[in-house]
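Q: Please design a sequence for this.
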């Protein structure tokens, strides 16, 4: 083992999806602080403005469900910054509905972005990592992937799928130098978090939490930065719950 700081990411190129806002933006800050060069991907044009705060970064507007666009993005990153060392699959959406009235459209949209988007991005970037026998992938799951939450049917299924996908990729790719893990946050009051929890159900959830509070975006980002670092070199196939103990009981 070298005596270099095992949590530094100097010289690493990190692609973060859903980077324009919320947890994705906090992840960018955490990775940049550890020395990584960032690629911020989002379907929202504002990602260009966000990227200006990260020196030497690249901003790309793309949808994680668009395979052709993703292939182009990876080519662009490789020609401008070099190979991608770290992939953070963070982009996600939520659509709340009682199960009996959940529309097929909301089901498809949620599964497309939250699960197929993670599959496509992991596959396209993963192939380049496998060719170099090095890389780290971190998928944003949710406590909704391990426990049932009212009105979260499509979301919970998509996140349970992300956890299963993480395990399968870790099994196949860890022997070839690519670590794959998931992070499952509890409630964070981002735009997505407010959509689901800025109501009585949110207050009830908060009072059930052992820590009696929601998480801050930085608390999720710090866990991601650790998993992305050589300090987590023996961790693969894990789903790290960052939930202040919410799922203990
Ligand atoms: N906020 C929470 O309470 C919470 C809890 C558990 C898990 N998560 C997960 O964390 C991740 C980030 O959530 P957040 O709370 O920061 O949400 P957010 O709404 O604040 O940010 C999500 C970002 O993803 C982008 N995005 C959405 N669909 C996209 C697509 N198809 N292609 C590219 N970009 C797309 C949005 O433009 C936005 O910038 C999501 O995967 C979410 O499911 C959030």
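A: Design:
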């Amino acid at each position: 083992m070298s005596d270099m700081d095992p949590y530094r990411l100097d010289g690493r190129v990190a692609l973060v999806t859903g980077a324009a806002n919320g947890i994705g933006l906090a992840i960018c800050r955490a990775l940049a602080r550890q020395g990584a060069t960032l690629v911020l991907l989002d379907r929202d044009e504002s990602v260009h403005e966000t990227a200006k705060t990260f020196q030497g970064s690249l901003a790309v507007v793309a949808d994680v469900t668009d395979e052709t666009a993703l292939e182009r993005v990876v080519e662009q990153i490789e020609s401008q910054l070099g190979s991608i060392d770290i992939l953070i699959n963070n982009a996600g959406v939520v659509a709340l509905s009682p199960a009996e009235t959940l529309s097929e459209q909301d089901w498809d949209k949620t599964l497309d972005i939250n699960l197929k988007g993670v599959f496509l991005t992991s596959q396209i970037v993963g192939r380049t990592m496998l060719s170099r026998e090095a890389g780290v992938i971190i998928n944003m799951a949710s406590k909704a992937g391990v426990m049932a939450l009212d009105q979260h049917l499509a979301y919970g299924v998509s996140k349970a799928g992300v956890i299963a996908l993480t395990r399968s990729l870790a099994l196949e790719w860890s022997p070839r130098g690519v670590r794959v893990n998931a992070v499952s946050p509890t409630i964070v009051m981002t735009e997505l978090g407010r959509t689901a929890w800025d109501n009585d159900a949110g207050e009830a959830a908060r009072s059930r939490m052992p820590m009696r509070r929601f998480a801050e975006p930085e608390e999720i980002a710090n866990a991601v930065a650790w998993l992305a670092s050589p300090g987590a070199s023996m961790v693969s196939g894990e789903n790290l719950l960052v939930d202040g103990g919410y799922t203990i009981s």
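Q: Thanks. Anything notable?
A: The mean pLDDT is 97. The helical segments are 22-33, 47-51, 67-80, 104-132, 153-173, 191-197, 200-208, 217-228.
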